[in-house]
Structure formats: structure tokens, C-alpha cells
From TrEMBL:
The keyword Transmembrane applies. This is HAMP domain-containing protein. Pfam families: HAMP_2. Residues 198-250 form the HAMP domain. The lineage of its organism: Bacteria, Bacillati, Actinomycetota, Actinomycetes, Micromonosporales. GO terms for biological process: chemotaxis; signal transduction. Belongs to the methyl-accepting chemotaxis (MCP) protein family. Keywords: Chemotaxis, Membrane, Transmembrane, Transmembrane helix. One of its GO terms (cellular component) is membrane. The chain crosses the membrane at residues 176-196.
Length: 379
């Protein structure tokens, strides 16, 4: 789901980029086409008016050779500028009506140029004195080109306004599209983030809950559910750790139980050894008292020696019996300490809630309990 949302967002971003790029290209087309054509038309309009003004300066000041040369050069320069601008304008305009007007202006301007040249030649022939005849030769000839160029400028301006209006209308439409696509993009992102957050939050919450239970001593819990990627690895790691901890503590419990049972068995055996040693010592004491009551003088000469050997043997046996009693008592104390430690360990582990121990581990302590029970019944 998240991958699909990201892919949809990328597609939407690309579409918006293409739309904005299209808008930019259209504006560039207006700026480099119609706007530039309008500027060239106005420049041509100004240049033509300057050309007409230069002609008037020729007639008014042409009697002076220096002024004649100056204004003639300026007249020719403006005439060339008008021709160049008209030629360039003809390549920029795509409207057939305006193109026809430009061509018509070029024809009129070319014809007017011929008339200006004829009038100029007549003016030069009069050595600059007959300016009236030169002026009469071209009088009113510039009105038609002037009106036509004014119309070209006005038509280009109107075309520019239409294109701008059309562009503004398209921009408004595309703005609606951008808003809709942007809203869809935001909705897609929010949806993707929602599912992504759920995919992240759910396993984190579950893992936190399991670890909290483990910290509280409950080792029967596990992290269930189906997760993707790293979260599945986290799930497996937590479950493995809990199982290992549960198994380890279960073995500790089983070991402590076995130690406790064994210590009870050893304690029972020790009690029996102490009792046997005490009985043996009492028997030895009784035998020694009986030996002491025998009169060595009433028997053979070797009787005294034999009685002495018997007493020494009884003393050695009594010493051994005493050592056995002390050894059994030491073993009893060690066993008591071992059982106390085992009981403490069991109390510590009892704070944890473990899973049921496997049958094999429960079976191990069975023989030890049986032996301890038999030992407890022994006299």
C-alpha cells in the first residue's frame, strides 16, 4: 500500500511538472512571438516617422551641403531600419491577415522610397532651392503607409491581448487541475503515511508490551502477528530470547528441585549413619565395660595381654566411630546449607511465570524422590 502511494505521488509530481513546464513554454511563446512582434512593429512605426521627418529636414536645410549630407544619411538609415524591421516582422507574425498587412506595407514603403528618390534627385538638380516642387512630388504619399503601420501595431496589440486572455483562461483551468492533483497528492501521502505509521507503531507497541511482561516476570508471553522486513526479524529475536530465558530458568528450577531432593536423600542417609555410629559407639562402650570387669588373674598368663589388646582395639574402633559421627554431622550441616541455598534459588525463580516444563525434565527427579522416600522409611 505504501509503495503504491509513493508511486502515485511520483506520477502526480511528474504530471504537475509537465503541466507547469507547458505553461512556461506558452508564456515563452507569447514573449518571444507576439510581444516581440509588437515591439518590432512599434519600432518600425517610430523609424518610419523619423524617416518622414528626415525628409522634411532635407527639404528645409538641404540648401547647405553639410546639412544635406547629414540629413540624407539619416534619411537612408531610417529607411533601411524600416525595411529590416518589416522583413523581420514578416517572419515573426503567424496571423495571415496581419502578414498580408505587413507585405502590403512593405510594397507601399518600397514604392514610396522610389518617389522619395525621384523628388530627391529633382531637389539636388535645383541645388536645394526648389524644395516646394520636391515636397509637392511626395505630398500625402506617406499617409497610406502610416495608416497601415498604425493598423499593424494595433492588430498586433489586439492579438497580444487575445493571447494573454486565452493564456489566463488556460492558467485558471490548469490551476484548478493543480489544486485537484495537489489535493489528491496530499491525500495519497497522508494515506501512505497512515499505513506506514500503522506498520511501524503496531509492532513497536506489541514488542514493548511483550518486553514489559518479561520484565514483570511473565515468561509465557510471545510476540505474535505477521510483520514485514526488519520488524519480523525483531519479532523472531524477541520470541527466541524469551524462549531461551524460559528454558534456562526452567532448567534452573529443575536443577534446584533435584538438588533439594538429593539433599533430602543425603540428609536421610546421614541421619542413618549418625544413628548407626552412635549405636556402634554405645556397643563398644558396653563391650569395654565388660572387658574391664574380667579379672586377668583368674585365667592363663596370656589373658592379661589379650584383654589389653581387646581394649586397644575397642579404643581404635571407638575413635573411628567418633570420626564417623563427626563426618556425618559435617555432611549434615553441608547438606542443610545446600538445601537452604536451593530453597532460596527456588523462591527467586518462583517470581517468574514459566511455561510448563517438558515431560523429560519432570521425569528426571522421579528416581531421586523414590530413593529419598525409601531412605526416610529405613530404621
Amino acid at each position: 500500500m505504501v509503495t503504491g502511494a509513493v508511486a502515485a505521488c511520483l506520477v502526480a509530481v511528474v504530471a504537475l511538472f509537465m503541466l507547469v513546464n507547458s505553461m512556461s513554454n506558452r508564456y515563452d511563446g507569447i514573449l518571444t512571438g507576439t510581444v516581440q512582434a509588437g515591439q518590432d512593429a512599434r519600432a518600425m512605426q517610430v523609424a518610419f516617422k523619423k524617416q518622414v521627418q528626415e525628409w522634411k529636414d532635407i527639404l528645409l536645410r538641404g540648401s547647405d551641403p553639410a546639412d544635406l549630407q547629414k540629413y540624407t544619411q539619416q534619411f537612408k538609415a531610417q529607411e533601411a531600419t524600416v525595411q529590416d524591421l518589416a522583413a523581420r516582422l514578416d517572419t515573426q507574425v503567424t496571423d495571415p491577415n496581419i502578414s498580408a498587412e505587413i507585405q502590403k506595407f512593405r510594397d507601399q514603403h518600397s514604392a514610396l522610397g522610389g518617389k522619395y528618390q525621384s523628388a530627391y534627385d529633382a531637389f539636388i538638380a535645383s541645388k536645394g532651392s526648389d524644395y516646394k516642387a520636391a515636397d509637392a512630388a511626395v505630398k500625402g504619399q506617406d499617409r497610406a503607409p502610416t495608416d497601415l503601420i498604425d493598423k499593424i501595431v494595433a492588430d498586433l496589440h489586439a492579438q497580444q491581448l487575445r493571447l494573454v486572455a486565452d493564456q489566463e483562461r488556460q492558467v485558471r483551468q490548469e490551476q484548478v487541475i493543480i489544486v485537484v492533483v495537489g489535493a489528491a497528492l496530499i491525500a495519497g501521502l497522508l494515506t501512505g503515511l497512515h499505513f506506514a505509521s500503522r506498520g511501524i507503531v503496531r509492532p513497536v507497541v506489541r514488542a514493548t508490551s511483550v518486553l514489559s511482561e518479561v520484565a514483570a516476570g511473565n515468561l509465557t508471553v510471545s510476540m505474535d502477528g505477521t510483520y514485514d522486513g526488519e520488524f519480523n526479524a525483531i519479532k523472531e529475536s524477541i520470541n527466541t530470547a524469551v524462549d531461551d530465558l524460559n528454558t534456562g530458568l526452567a532448567r534452573v528450577v529443575a536443577g534446584a528441585d533435584r538438588i533439594s531432593e538429593t539433599s533430602r536423600f543425603v540428609e536421610t542417609v546421614g541421619d542413618q549413619l549418625i544413628h548407626s555410629a552412635q549405636v556402634t559407639r554405645a556397643s563398644l562402650d558396653a563391650i569395654e565395660q565388660a572387658v574391664r570387669r574380667i579379672d586377668p588373674t583368674v585365667g592363663p598368663p596370656s589373658l592379661a595381654y589379650q584383654l589389653g589388646e581387646v581394649r586397644r582395639a575397642l579404643a581404635a574402633m571407638a575413635s573411628i566411630s567418633d570420626r564417623n559421627v563427626r563426618t556425618a554431622e559435617d555432611a549434615r550441616r553441608s547438606t542443610d546449607e545446600l538445601r537452604a541455598n536451593s530453597d532460596n534459588l527456588q523462591r527467586v525463580v518462583a517470581a517468574y511465570k514459566l511455561k510448563p516444563a517438558p515431560a523429560a525434565e519432570r521425569w528426571v527427579t522421579g528416581p531421586i524422590r523414590a530413593i529419598a522416600a525409601v531412605g526416610a522409611k529405613a530404621p
